[in-house]
Amino acid sequence: MVIWMKIADYIKKLEENYIDGVIYKKAEKIIPRKNFPVQLIDFFDNFDELKTPFGEIFSIERIIEMSDREPFRSENYICFGKDNYFSYWICKKDVKEGEDCFSIWDYETSFEKVEPCFSKLSELLEFAEKEYTNSEEDGCNVIIKSSDAQCLSELMKIKKLFSSSLSIAEIKNQVNNGNCIIKEGINLYCAKKILSENNFEHIKVEFISK
Length: 210
Prior knowledge:
The structure is a single chain. By secondary structure, the protein is an alpha+beta fold. It has helices spanning about 5-20, 40-45, 60-65, 120-135, 150-160, 170-175, 190-195; strands spanning about 25, 45-50, 55, 75-85, 85-90, 100-105, 140-145, 180-185, 205-210. A hairpin with a 2-residue loop joins strand 2 and strand 3 (about 55). The longest helix has 13 residues, at about 120-135.
């Protein structure tokens, strides 16, 4: 859990987990603090916007433009980002620190049903991240393309890393006949992270997006 993690530390953690999938801009402007939720100030004191595989936090200019739309304006909410499923990340204004103020809303849900569910931005982002990693979005297959005569220990290692149900004999046979799918439907960034943390000299491993 990252409930008490500072937002800068959480974004650093995202960079480690998603390698090239996190893009952000450092803060260059003074944010308009009047009528701006205090729970978002920590983020915008450090960053201007954020894009991740599971959603994005808008720039200040876009937040102002989005939050002036209905139903956000009349319901006293800031609309500051969205996920990849057309759901918006919102923050209730005039809520004390420590109280729930963040929520997620989409057009198919009546705004009257919206209730703040998270007290910190990192909690909302962690929730959205789990929804993403548990979905089939950005799924890929991890494939062993080739191997040499000294591959046995590395085959055992990659079998364990990706929890493959294939036996070593089955893996070797499939590689010899073309290639072996060692893992199906894993999140692309999870696969990238695993492979970036482990070196293989005797097998060639690739991932193919589904």
